[in-house]
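Hello K.,

You asked for the raw outputs rather than the summary table, so here they are, unedited. I folded two proteins back to back in the same session to keep the settings identical. This is the first:
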Amino acid sequence: MTFIDDVVAFLEGFEFGGNSGYDYALALGVFLLSILVLQIFKYLIIGRLKHFLVKKDRSKTAQQLLDRLNKTISFTLILFISLMNGVMVIETPSLLDQVIRVIVYLLLSYALLKLLFVIVDAFLLNSKVGKSLSSNLIEFLRLFFKTIIVVIVLLWFLSNLGIDTTAFLASFGVFGLAIAFALQNVISDIFAALIIYIDRPFEIGDYIQIGSDIGEVEKVGIRSTKIRVLAGNLLIVSNRELISTRIFNHKKMEKRRVPMTIGVHCSTPIEKLREIPKWLESIVTGIEGVTFDRAFFTAINDYSYDFEMVYFVMSRSYSEYLKIRQEINFKIVEVLEANEIIIPYPTSTVELEGQTSVGA
């Protein structure tokens, strides 16, 4: 009797758990064949496709997705899928079949989540569409899409285990309505955050003014925005309140308009009055980063002759603006003093019999 005859005789006579030896042999064949097919798919098809993309210098995003797909199909996943396929052709205890089924779908769900998360990140971070969006909107969309993916994969997992998801969805809908009603202000803040992300009235690092509060935006969250004010305190404003008020974004300002009025004493000779606008223009044009607009003799007041000057500081920095304005003021005072022109202050003259006195 040959070895093959011995094996055939053993299989014909062997029986365990309601399955013959032929059944177990078939199950083993299905198990091994499944491993072989999945490994071929993993290493040949995915590997060849990746090699083709690299050779053709195609999108790096596609290469990253193939890398993730290759890592997602782990040997543990292949082993349990093959085991489930092999067990399906024989009679097994329902508990064992259910345990294997749960493990397989848990692994598949986990692998599917990781793969879909990578697709979302690749689309939002590496695609042309994603690069055109603000960082805040990208983070919001990542959270939104990943939450939707988790819910869908969870429903798929429960459905494959034979659980009726219709009742689950109905319960979830009622529960969602109750939550939405209880948290309507929070939901309003979330939608307000979405408006901020899309409209982009300001971004992190921008210097903004809301009412009397001025500061730098530190974080735009789902519910609120954090602003570091000049005093050093952290101002937290709800997004719903933020989009309903006027916002001055100083970082968007390309140049800062500076109007100022210079008053000189009424005793200033007309010759010097005619020269003052030229002096002011010379002062402003001599400072880098400043654009002169105009300077005119605009008013005759009780105590002074007033000149109005307007110039632009070509900087968004508030500290730079203050430095330039200070330098211009110093030079104006220097020119007036050099030409013996008095900067007036309010005075009153009282005439008495036989004398005149002047008092402040």
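The second followed immediately with the same parameters:
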Amino acid sequence: MAIKEQSPRQRRVRIFLRRSPPFMRCTRDRRFNGDIHVRHSRLCSTTLGVLSAIALSGHARIAASQPSNPGFVIAHVRVFDGRQSHTDRNVVIVGGRIQAVVESLDAWRHLPVVDGTGATLIPGLIDAHSHTQNVTDLQQALRFGVTTVLDMFTDPAVEQGLRDAAKRRVDVADFRSAGVLATAPGGHGTEYGIAIPTVARASDAEAFVAARKAGGSDYLKIVLNGVRAARGTPTLDAATATALVRAAHSRGMVAVAHVESTEDVRIAVSSGVDGLAHIWREGGAAPDIAELVARKNVFVIPTLATPEGFVKNSGVSLANDSRLRPFLSDTIIALLSGSAKGPVIEDFKPFLDAVGSLRAADALVLAGSDVPNAITAHGVSLHRELELLVRAGLTPTEALAAATANVAVAFKIPDRGMIAPGCRADLVLVRGDPTSDIMATRDILRVWRSGVEFDRRATPAEAKSREPSIPAAKASSDLPAESTLTVCR
């Protein structure tokens, strides 16, 4: 795409949240002509007011090693704002934040302008289920437009180093983590050779969650491993799960439950969890379970990419995609082209049907890859997850929301997931229109984290030599007087 200077225009639009998680206390209208609008209480109105003014973001070619970011504008670009698509929009970014949507560039002529004609700007993708082991994983995620990863359990020995790197640098994806998961002694999560505390009974829950909060965990992950339990692996009982959720909520933490069976889902929902990690493994479509999940406003991260990894040759198309392959290492290409260790899944359709029943029930679905399980790889496998969600029945727009605004709302991360004033300038520019063809997310032109462009072709060693830092935000008093800044929080 040719890069040339233009004079952009601006238009403001209103967000209608497609889903309403529990903390927003919204009531939802069913679909009308394919759209969802929200009837909301006073609390929901306040939340929507904070999120509603849409600004649309942009870019100038700024070296990753230049933390002092003067700002830039992207002009005449199609924008997916986290909820819906808009054509011919323009955005101003200053100090790593989306600052304004402008009718005229008169007040911003000192900033570089890029023509976004023919491309779509989307919020940085958020992988809602990852297991991150090193800084290279975070860099690999960013290379494919994943600007935030939500880790669901990693080695405590590396967790703080990952947090520090994400806080200090913009050449890696941002990192949030559950820290140590809550599992029964001998339960799932204890088999990896990592010494972790466990939860034997309900009376242990308070101390366990207090320790996670004190250690910096951003949310709580609870393990209900019903399928493994049938083979003799211990699992948490309902009383312990409920005590864990209550302890998490009393500390303002989102509680997510790993589930494997429909009975796990029932226990998790009854315990009061906010979300489910994974889809039930047996039975396919389950309208009654899906309706229960939707009625209780519980979100679901199906992680379809991981079970699909046990389908023969399932990763070959990802490895051979010409839009992705130039940015894949030989090791990752070999991984995606190989076979997962474990029983082969002959029929993947029940997994898709299970997600389809959630969509039919209007449950909130989030995109997460569960990388690096099976034959998944950081960053690239989230694009496969989006493709699978569409195959399961979500529209491309719904799938994009599942990897952007829906995740930000569900996990209460109010500064990202949308293209709106005050939001972090975590952005991905792609060729084409991913709201029509979800595969367009793979055709990445540029990636920014906090307004700094990431060099997608840089090797880890080259990027480390620069270690660009997050730019300081420009004070609002430095903005043109006619600018209207709505804080994204």
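The CA atoms of residues 139 and 172 lie 4 Å apart.

Happy to rerun anything if the numbers look odd on your end.

Regards,
P.
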